[in-house]
Amino acid sequence: MDTVSIVIPAYNEAASIGPLVSEFRAGADWREIIVVDDGSSDETGAKAAAAGARVIRHPYNKGNGAAVKSGIREATGRFVLIADADGQHRPSDARRLVAHLDAYDLVVGARSGATQATLARRAGNAVLNWVASYLTEQKIPDLTSGFRAARRECLVEFLHLLPNGFSTPTTTTLAFMKAGYSVRFEPIDAAERRGSSKIKLGSDGLQFFLILLKVITIFSPLRVFLPLSAAAFVTGTGYALWTIATQSHVTNSSVLLILLSVVFFLVGLVSEQISSLRFEGRRG
């Protein structure tokens, strides 16, 4: 385990960070445990340091994603394990995730449905998982789990894509999959978090969905543009056939829908070619 750096982003988690760091330290001989204190107003940084973590402090709150990026930049291990500071992720599961890094580039701790927060949160996650599975053409059981282990070099490759907010897990999962890296989902049970959640279901849920579409349009834009093109073409053609049969002419609306379908397809095709250029010369 001396090749693994643990990165824990923390914002006002003084109640949980000390015991969490202690549990990680007791579980294995990790290379280092980095706690990124994201401008906390409580004793998060002090308690993390007292428990034996290396603390990096942001002068103000930048967001969960910004804290994760700071930790990855500072990590010295070949592998990076990312965990939340709220006590949901069990240090006892960390060794299982890391054990698969000899064969996989990213290992995600996939939470069982029964241990995922509230019913509304589980429903929202289920929708995101379904959409992500369609867009990536791979089964994704848990898109938003923050408990994950990866090769540091691969994480660094996508740092510029990671948002500063709460959708870093979403972005890294999709980016790794669409880039052709090996991803494993390791089943885990999440514990009940300590304190209150920083995620707002409404605004952050919409942001997760927009981030999902943004990442997919970067890596596989035809998965978005092709269905739009097909829908416009079928609608336009169907309406044209109906007006020919009932009115003996083709309406302008039918022509515009068919032209719109062509535009969607061409934009998607050009975007797909641009996307392919991103990976020229990358590691196979």
* Structural classification: alpha/beta
Per DSSP E runs of 2 or more residues, the count of β-strands stands at 7
Q: How much helical structure, as a percent, in the residues?
A: 40-55%
Measured between the Cα atoms of the first and last residue, the distance is 26 Å
- Can you tell me the residue ranges where pLDDT is under 50 for at least 5 consecutive residues? none
CATH topology of the largest domain: Spore Coat Polysaccharide Biosynthesis Protein SpsA, Chain A
CATH C-level class of the largest domain: Alpha Beta
CATH superfamily of the largest domain: Spore Coat Polysaccharide Biosynthesis Protein SpsA, Chain A
Strand content: 5-15%
What's the CATH architecture name of the largest domain?
Alpha-Beta Complex
Shape: elongated
SS element count, helices: 10
Q: Overall pLDDT, averaged?
A: 86
Helix-strand topology string: EHEHEHEHEHEHHEHHH
Q: For the largest sheet, list the strands in their spatial order.
A: 3-2-1-4-6-5-7
Number of separate domains: 2
